[in-house]
């Protein structure tokens, strides 16, 4: 027990307490009769300590590790998802601090509400709180998704966020790991389960179709998440992004001319072909209307001034991922080019287009 305590970075007293309450009981004995930990005991202890360090109470931890339907791999995937969410929260806090430092350097007043919002319950607003203001269902994209759902009656929406694109005429179950996103779901929306895509808490073939809309790039392991969707549903529909084409980032003037860091954000994102192969899907292009009502990253391709608006950018996770320096540089350069007419000259061919293919793809399996 002493050696295990040393390796785990906890006290022997903590291990005794876990033993007393039945959380982790050593199942082996040494020749001298002392309690010893088997490999399975160590694995369980690892899970207990990981959940504890993420802030879970002992009762919650007991329920999590006591779930017989969840194996070690599922626990690791769940822990990975929780850690990624914590990382995003930390990134959001850094971004909030950077903005306050910049505001103070410019002599601007920072209100008490803004100061408390950075540390309080609205911390995740930095990357998620603007979703209900600018991220709404785009009817033309929704129609394409609805066609792909065909006659499905039961639908699982994975990475559901605030509920955009959930069909109103089907029996929908939502999955969303972020508490902030779940809180923003409107009253009367589909029931929402707190879980990650890589470890869906449902039996095989529980749903007619599993859908995921503009969320795969947030997952810790996209391929694992897609395979989980394939496991729990007879069909799969996923709106994602194509990075297979050479110099794909040049499709969109914003990433081509102002934000080359976007390519780094998706550097480890799986290929469209790889995702399609994982679930046996075909890919359909999803054109973006010039007046798209869903404020996704590419939505304002014919309305460049929107990218100068803080509240518009805050609903796009890309800006948090590239960091405040790249964001402010891109905004300054775009503002200068709009003022000088350089942007209009360089992108004159867009003026009369109703839609643009900027890499959105619908995977249908």
TrEMBL record:
Keywords: DNA-binding. The keyword DNA-binding applies. Residues 1-67 form the HTH merR-type domain. SMART domains: HTH_MERR (SM00422). PROSITE patterns: HTH_MERR_1, HTH_MERR_2. It comes from the Bacteria. It holds the Pfam family MerR. PANTHER family: HTH MERR-TYPE DOMAIN-CONTAINING PROTEIN, REDOX-CYCLING DRUG-SENSING TRANSCRIPTIONAL ACTIVATOR SOXR. This is MerR family transcriptional regulator. It comes from Streptomyces bobili.
